[in-house]
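ERR on first pass: missing label on line 2. Operator R.T. fixed the label and resubmitted. Corrected input:
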Amino acid sequence: MIVPTNALFKHAYGKYAIGAYNINNLEQCMGLFQGNLQSKAPFIIQISKGARSYTHKKMLESMLKTADEIFPDAVFAVHLDHGDEATCLDCIASGIYSSIMIDASHLPYAKNVETTKRVVDAAHAKGLSVEAELGLLKGIEEDIKADDHVFTEPDEAVDFVKKTGCDSLACAIGTSHGAYKFKGAQKLRFDILEAIQKLIPGFPLVMHGSSSVPEDEVRRINHFGGAMQGAKGVDENSFALAAKLGVTKINIDTDGRLVWTRVHREYFTLYPENFDLRPVGKVFMAEYARFIAGKNKKLGSAGQLDAVREFCKTNKK
Ligand code: G3H
Ligand code: 13P
Ligand code: ZN
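pass 2 clean. output:
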C-alpha cells in the first residue's frame, strides 16, 4: 500500500523514525520489501535523480507498482531524493510519488525559499508533500560539492518553514553522504534538532547521510580485495535520540551499497568458476533484507506495520 509520507510522519513523530532507503535496481527492490516485511516496518523508498537515469525512470516506477502487488502487506511511501525543480515537477506528474524533496540548499537563502515555495505549491496542488533542505552537508550531494558543513540555523529554519510551507525539513547537523563521514569521533549537533523542536514542535525533521558504515562490512570488503581505509558512519544507537527530537525520516543509501559490494566481492572470490548472476543475486537479496530488518530495529520502526496500516486508513493525507 503506497501511503502519504505525511501520514507516516504523523504516526512516527517523537516515537520512532522511518527508514528512507535508496534503491536503483530490482534486487534492491526485492530485498527492501522482504526486509521491511520480515521486521514488520513501514518504510520510504527513495529514488534519486541518478537512480532515475541509471536504467529508466519508468522502469523503476513500474517496479514499485509491481512490488506493491507482489507484497500487498507492505506499507510504504515513494519519495524523490534530492530533486532539482525540473525533476520535482516530473515526479509530481508521474502519479506514483507520495512526496518529493526539493534540494535548493546550495542557493542563497532567498532563492532557496523562492524555489522551494514554487515546488511546494505545485506539489500540494496534486496532493504530494515536500521535503526541503536548509544548511549544507559536507561532501558531494548530486552535483554540488561543499567543503565544510554549514549547520542549519534554528531561527532561520522556522522562518523557512513559514515562508515555504514545506512539510518536512532536512537539517545539517554534521552528517554527510557516503562512507567517510568522520575522521575521529562522531560529532553530531543534536542541540540544533532540540532547538528547532522547541521552536516548531511537531514539525517533522529529516536526517540525511545516516548510513552507519558497519565496521564488519568494511572489513569484509577490504579482506576480499576492497580498498576502503578510514570508512566511518553514524552510530545507529543515535537514532532513538534523533527520533525523540523530531526526526521522522532517516536516509540510508551507502549501507545498502556496502552490502552489495561485500556480497559480490566475497561470492566471486569464493566461487571464481561461477559466472551466473542469479546465485549471487539471491545471496544479495537475502543479505540486504537482513540488513534492512536489523536497521529498522534501531530506527524503532520495526513492529509498527499493523498500527501504521490502520492509522493510514483514516489519515489519507
Ligand atoms: O544523497 C545521495 C544519495 O545517496 C543518492 O546517491 O545520487 O548516487 O543516487 P546517488
Ligand atoms: P548515506 O550516504 O549516509 O547513506 O546518506 C544517504 C542520503 O542521505 C540520501 O539522501
Ligand atoms: Zn541525502
